[in-house]
Amino acid sequence: MLDPDRIEVSDLNEVISRADDSSFIKAYLVGTSFLYRGDIDEFIMELKSRSKKPVLIFPGDRYQLSDKADAVLFLSLLSGRNPEYLIGEQVKAAPFVWRYGLEAIPTAYLLIDSGHMTSVEFVSNTKPIPRDKEDLFSAHVLASYYLGFKLIYLEAGSGAPRSVPLDFIKKARELVDLPLLVGGGLRGREDVEEVLSAGADFAVIGDAVEKSFPLLESFS
Question: Among residues 157, 159, 176, 169, which one has the least CA distance to residue 195?
Fold first, then answer.
């Protein structure tokens, strides 16, 4: 995960030089909570001009869409009850996605409690699923499946002190045959391998990379 507000365009060469030749790293996600930069196109174009890997948008809102990307995770914050992030932003984004022919991947976004308030929790004004409520979590996973989502993103939040519980990942894998992305609170290869072993198809790491680009070399 690359955050345009926290990684300068001038730093992309260092990131790509450490990550692009790794078969372990499958793609770059680009997204942020606020987009202070104001224009995500430049960031994505620079990334694509230097990298061979797909670039997907992980949008915080409709203003983070770009026809320069390869695809967008068309997210619905299904764990929350704020209509703006359940359907409001999606309706506003849909004409852009259609107009530019941007591939949209319908994604159920489930926020899991990490022990402290994360940016996504604050910005979206939603509560995460409690870590000790596996039955509630399971119901959300099943709802994601029955609503027809093609991907489930289990998120603890950027810089979370605790990642998504491994039992949650195992339960989701047991319940549905959908690709699972897991992110938040992953600080290195060992954490990533744990969530992959638990049943995740992909692990998302961002905050730790921003603090130490050389960390990417552990995924070579």
Answer: 169
Residue 73: phi and psi, rounded to 5, are: -75, 110
Sign of torsion, CA 191 192 196 199? positive
Tokens of 31: 């997204």
Asked if residue 96 lies in contact with residue 64, where contact means CB atoms within 8 angstroms, the answer is no
Structure confidence by residue, pLDDT tens digits, 98-131:
999 999 999 999 999 999 999 899 999 999 999 9
**Does the pTM exceed 0.90?**
yes
Q: What kind of architecture, by CATH, is found in domain 9-219?
A: Alpha-Beta Barrel (3.20)
Residues 65, 58: contact at Cβ < 8 Å?
A: no
Question: What residues contact 84, with CB distance under 8 A and at least 6 apart?
Answer: 124
Contact between 167 and 145 under an 8 Å Cβ cutoff? The reply is no
Q: Is 86 helix (H, G, I), strand (E, B) or coil?
A: helix
